[in-house]
Predict the structure.
Amino acid sequence: MAYFNSFKLINSIIRNSIKDLDHVEFRKILYKSLTLTLVLTILCCYLLYVFLDAYVFTLFDFKFESEFINTFLNSLFVKTIFMMTKIILLWMIFSIILIPVGNLISFLFEEKIFDLVNEINLYNFQSEKLKNTFLNSFLLSFKLLLFAIFINLLLLPFYIFVPLANILLFIFVNGYLIGREFYSNILFQFYNKREVENLRLESRTEELVLGSFIFALYTVPILNLFIPFFATSCFSHLFLIKKKTL
């Protein structure tokens, strides 16, 4: 029953976050966020491609004395496998890189998004915001970024060699990190570190499921540019609903 209520709550949060776009001020923030995210993403993708093309992909240009082996490695079958592997790896790397880029932009509009969600949906939440919330959010995001790189590199063999399960593992592992980051950033506006951990624990199911859903959207080209804004809105709703029901 508890899990059913959690999924029902998440469904309501997603619908309300989409409905909020009817508000003019909300759309203005979206357009600003989207523009900055697009510019930074294009720059990061270009730099990433230059790096991989210069230092990584060239490592696979093998040459052997055996003509048979060279012919096999240059066959259409091997080239197709290599190309598919390259595309999958680039897709995963791009999805992970876009997260800190998008989060950096969402930090700039986080308080405004939260205040508008509170105002538009008549949650009537009032509390004094703490100082240095941007610094706390930045440090948390940087720490989680390093952890995400480490854990994804550690799980890379599973991503490559375990079909089907690799996609679910990739989504849920990174979904947990996404949920933790976005929800903690909202909570850090009003609570200290210990209080944040306690509140996260109370919403651990919603945080994981919503985070996994958001990360899955991160893997969809074009749509993923909207996700940092959408994620901030969703976790603002989650926090405000939880506070209203207490």
Notes: The mean pLDDT is 83. The chain is about 80% helix and 0% strand. The chain has one domain: 2-44+95-245.
